[in-house]
């Protein structure tokens, strides 16, 4: 068996009979859970004799088998069916459009109640329902899933005090640390505005001139840049968040989900072959595994840092181009995520899901990381545009805990009772409302790092300094210690991609790599025959 054959995921069966272990997905299969035969109706309930006729006006002499006739405007069935089809698409996510998702549960395995009062993290053995959506960033929906790209990890934990979203990535650092660059870095990874094709010159030109992303670029072009399966990738918060305890004290934290299946990646040649043979490779693999009861799981770890340690630490903890090396801040186990249920319908449960770093429960809080602050605005803003202002009411997004938010009313597609007769203004004497806790949204906590004195409004953009190349250098050296040597793969992957950029841009990229390591730059230069 070749390496590639080993990677073949089970195909999802759509056959009449379920010969494979994977349940047949068509309603004609007896394995469907709902066996009651439904009666076909129009959308407002009117029963109709056939799903495939059109009402026509035809001459008495025209044989029934002839198409010669006039279609009528009164045919609500035909008009409704066609009009709905034209409106089936909603705006695609501007990034992270190509995705796979599933349901599962999160279980607490270690007690961290001294660090956080988040209810879902308190009590070893406690379980919460989870929705996970894992996406590639640059490709459009429907693209090949084995493309080299960062994978996004969007996870909603349904807790007794509202939803907790973890909107992470499969690499621990990011390409930028200035939020205003986000549209630019993504455009450079997508399509050229003139040709509408991917453009490697544009890609490398962006990175040559925004070198704070060198660490992320090197991880992307290492073997970690193409996961073999969604089941075999890790995810990382990237940002520093806060854990807040009952006393209002906080600890800085980074989150890591580590796959219990072991990290596995694809080599470029295998990934390219699979992209042609089965563009839905990752979907088939995850869906098929869950369907046959082989449930993937991840262990959640945290790294924690006290505020006074943060002040002395050599790396800026709000700079998400940097990791906290594990030898400085070791991983501590917290819990286990298991995916155990496929969606019944991708659009309803995965496409309509909306995740945001601003969706937080008491006990977890944001920090002053400018990227995180910007993201907390961007995601709900995107969801209001993509799904409408009442997107939190969609079943896939709706909390399992009670919601009473009567000052947010009306709006398109409101499909609950809209708080009925309850007052729609604050401090109404006509109906009392209970309040809980003594803090505002997102757990504003006590302590020196929340005090801002003698400041003034100032423009700020980060500058690239020598120490921005230190962690990339550590990464390069680490690859050199692997067996077989992964430095060679990194160089080869870069050359394959960078080789399609114009020579000037290739030369400029080599200048960046020189700042990481002269030998690394030499190898790329040789690989490009420059
Ligand atoms: C300033 C920086 C960033 C901005 C402005 C931004 C903005 C966005 C937007 C607008 C979307 C589409 C949301 C939608 O249509 O529902 C998105 C998706 C996503 N982003 Fe970001 N992003 C940023 C950085 C990051 C970082 C650093 C990470 C990971 C650490 C990340 C992870 C994700 C994920 C996982 C998704 C997919 C969410 C889903 O499945 O619905 N993003 N981002």
UniProtKB/TrEMBL annotation:
This is Catalase core domain-containing protein. Belongs to the catalase family. PROSITE patterns: CATALASE_3. One of its GO terms (molecular function) is metal ion binding. The active site is at residues 96, 169. Residues 41-434 form the Catalase core domain. GO terms for cellular component: mitochondrion; peroxisome. Its cofactor is heme.
